[in-house]
Amino acid sequence: MVTAGRELEEELGVAAVPDPLAGGRPFFVTVTETRGPAEGRHVDVSLWFALSGRVGQRLRPDEGEFAAVRWWTVAELRGADPDRFEPHLPRALAVLGMAR
């Protein structure tokens, strides 16, 4: 959780507040092969953390990391093109009880 919190603060300018239900522990783990030419691909192992935030919370993104950022509601995620997001996001939302 320490590393995830540091990254959140560095990249989005938001303090990491663990979600009480997840208790600051990863709730989900994924293993994904990256895309692109074979010589440049690798496997990403990701630990997913649930964090608490508030509607309208200001994001201060690191411009070297992001072209744009914004908050999404679960309804907006469901209605958007799934290719815009991490492929495991629907399963992560299901684990959190946020699936359809």
Helix and strand topology:
Layout (H helix, E strand, L loop, with lengths): L1 H11 L15 E6 L9 E6 L25 H6 L9 H7 L5
Antiparallel strand pairs: 1-2
Give a quick summary of the entry.
By secondary structure, the chain is an alpha+beta fold. It is built from three helices and two strands, in the order αββαα. The longest helix is centred in the N-terminal third of the chain and has 11 residues.
- Kindly provide the radius of gyration, computed on alpha-carbon positions and rounded to a whole number of angstroms: 15 Å
Helicity, as a percent range: 10-25%
The helix count comes to 3
Largest sheet: 2 strands, antiparallel
Please tell me what the overall shape is.
Answer: globular
Q: Please state the structural category.
A: alpha+beta
Biggest sheet strand order reads 1-2
Instruction: Determine the N-to-C terminus distance.
Output: 28 Å
Counting DSSP E segments of at least 2 residues, the number of strands comes to 2
Ranges where pLDDT stays below 50 over 5 or more residues in a row are none
Strand content: 5-15%
Question: For the residues shown, what is the average pLDDT?
Answer: 88
* Helix and strand pattern: HEEHH
